[in-house]
Amino acid sequence: MKYISYTFASLMTLAMMLIFINMGCWMQMASALPFMKVDPWISGGEVTDSIVGDNYSIRIHEAVYQGLFVEDRNGYIQLDVNGCYEGEIELGGSSYLLIADEEQLVLSDSGSGAAVDVKKCRTSGGWVVRVGI
To answer: What is the largest CA-CA distance in the chain?
Structure first.
């Protein structure tokens, strides 16, 4: 019984070391899982700009660099998109092409046309999108 306890304690110590030493790597891998979603109730900061049209509204939040314990060097900008929109949008000094409707939301670089990887979540009124900067 004594050896089982020592073995278990050693394995748990090793597991804790691996988890905490590679915390950034584990968190990145966990956030990339397909079932991880953006919480629509947590905003990205104060709203700094709004784009409003006849059948759409977009609220752009200020950039957030907040991490769990310290500031994160890779921040994000949150967009609240309601309705259907197709056009260019300026975020953090870069220009993007945003196409949003009830079924899909696509954000691509307006210069190269390459799709931009975003975290997005459907809400009752539209989309909540977080764009990494």
So the answer is: 73
CB atoms inside a 10 Å sphere around CB 117? 9
Q: How far apart are CA 61 and CA 45, in angstroms?
A: 5
C-alpha to C-alpha distance for 83 and 64, rounded to whole angstroms: 25
**At 5, is the secondary structure helix, strand, or coil?**
helix
Can you read off the two tokens belonging to residue 105?
């939301």
Q: Is a pLDDT exceeding 80 seen at residue 133?
A: no
Six-digit token pair at 48? 């700094």
Quick check: 107 and 100 in contact, CB under 8 A? no
Indicate if the pLDDT at residue 86 is higher than 90.
Answer: yes
The rounded percent of the chain whose pLDDT value lies above 70 is 79
Give the contacts of 72 (CB within 8 A, at least 6 positions apart).
Answer: 65, 66
